[in-house]
Specification:
- This protein is mostly helical.
- The protein has one domain (2-68).
- Helix content is 69%, strand content 0%.
- The protein is built from three helices and no strands.
- The longest helix is centred in the first third of the chain and has 24 residues, at 2-25.
- The termini are far apart.
Length: 70
């Protein structure tokens, strides 16, 4: 739990950057779960602390990024 608290801001920043990239490249948001799994398998270990992987959470993140651009 202590390690999770140390990396949570870094994780959120990276995930939002990653979601921005997905949107910019025109990749469907339905691919996010698979891409997160791929990143974990490639050694991005801190993603194990990212619990917001449901389709509703992903939509909310895309929506948040979209509202920031307006």
């Amino acid at each position: 739990m202590i390690e999770q608290q140390k990396v949570i801001d870094s994780i959120l920043s990276k995930v939002f950057y990653w979601i921005h990239w997905i949107a910019k490249e025109g990749i469907t948001n339905k691919k996010t779960a698979g891409l997160l799994t791929l990143l974990e398998r490639l050694g991005v270990n801190d993603l194990k602390y990212f619990d917001h992987r449901s389709p509703a959470s992903v939509r909310e993140m895309f929506s948040t990024l979209g509202s920031e651009r307006e």
